[in-house]
Design goal:
The structure holds 2 protein chains of 2 kinds. By secondary structure, chain A is α/β, with parallel strands linked by helices. Helix content of chain A is about 40%, strand content about 25%. The chains are: A alpha/beta, B mainly alpha. The interface of A and B includes residues 108 and 110 of A.
Chain lengths: ~250, ~270
Amino acid sequence: MSDEIIRVSHLGKTFGKNVVLRDINFTVSRGDVTSIIGSSGSGKSTLLRCINLLETPTSGEILYHGEPINSRKVNASEYRTHVGMVFQSFNLFNNMSVLDNCVIGQTKVLKKKKEDAVANAMKYLEKVGMAPYINAKPNQLSGGQKQRVAIARALAMEPEVLLFDEPTSALDPEMVGEVLEVMRSLARDGMTMMVVTHEMAFARDVSNHVVFMSEGVICEEGTPDEIFECPKNARTKEFLARFTQSRGLALSS
Amino acid sequence: MTSSLPTDFLGRIIYLITNYTSSFLRGAATTIAIALVGTAVGCLIGFIVGIIQTIPVSANDSKLKKILLGFVNVILKIYVEVFRGTPMIVQAMFIYYGALMYLDINMGMWFAAFFIVSINTGAYMAETVRGGIISVDWGQTEGAMAIGMTHFQTMLYVVFPQTLRNIIPQIGNNLIINIKDSSVLSVIGTVELFYAAKQTAGAYYWYFESMTIAMAIYLVMTLLTSFLLRKWEKKLDGSAVFDLATTDTLAHTSGMLHGPERKQRGI
């Protein structure tokens, strides 16, 4: 079990009286690509945000290499350098160029030398195909371009795990493809990823583990084949049926 | 002597300008100095107060930090409310004579002027900065936190530069207000432009003429200030185009890409 990176056990999250997550358990091992699917409001994003400590869990534990991270003693900032996050709304720094977006974390947080940080940033910007745009400001880019830069920014920190919170949900349909392509290539390279997504084709074809959530609990999890071909849980069946009806194209792509 | 004094409006204006040039100029220079220093120090106070007021407190923080921060915030809130809620002219006399009579401190014209304008501006700027920080999209903070930045680093490199850009119009507004409102310091004997104009007027009872000159000088100063501030804003926004950094000449023949036109309201 040395390959285990993150273990979530009995995780719960409430906002006031509103129970968002209940008794969540799963593990993420090196090289895993985990897709979390489910309808809106099922707690997928909250779960991902808990793992990055952007939300504080109200109960249970998150273990990172066996160490509990949701306790007072843990330095959340240090932990977050190992667990990157890509947001639905990109969250690129609007006051910085594309290059600076990918450099600032390396120089200020990881204390790398500027030249090394720039070289590293360029490596990842090339990987996502955004190297020609290093001088642009975020508001001069399209949504798909912004998201690719955001992925490069997260990669430049060289995290062990990369969390994606609905990375294509804010994009125009024709831009979804370019971002998914980058994510596919990351998966091929062996990056450990957790992806909250509504892209069923991506979940089915790219991930090796699929988690279906409903009303704050994990209803069913397994390999893509298990979830998509022969779902056991009634709610999973219902969800997937609705999805194939309304977005038939997404699954057949 | 008196018989040679002009009796028409234009003649009196010319007479005052030629004979009291240095008086008006020194008054104007004093006004500008008070406004600049007061605004600069006031901004500094505002930044500090605004930043302290937006320090987040999470459930995980120690009790000491919570209590200390709560106490400091109450003090800052009182400061902001008192100085925003009372007229500067009253503050000026209150502080100047209070210090003189009960603390035995004679602040002197310059120090009193800088002090009063600074803390007054600081109270306004504190709210402006707080609003500016809050108005920066929370996603920016989350993006910074997600790459491991601390609250301080997030503020310094991400939120604050954007706050500053957003509140420049308000800083300019304060500078212009201070150019005009420093005139109330005449009540504690600060010889700024209004005081100088009043003195000059008093010598001949030419109030209208003298104030016409003062009006013109104030207007020139404020117009010039807003012009320079606009230029500064434009410069900070940078170019609307960016160079495409590629050696592949076939990729984009023009070599330049145009970003979306920067939209400006009300221009």
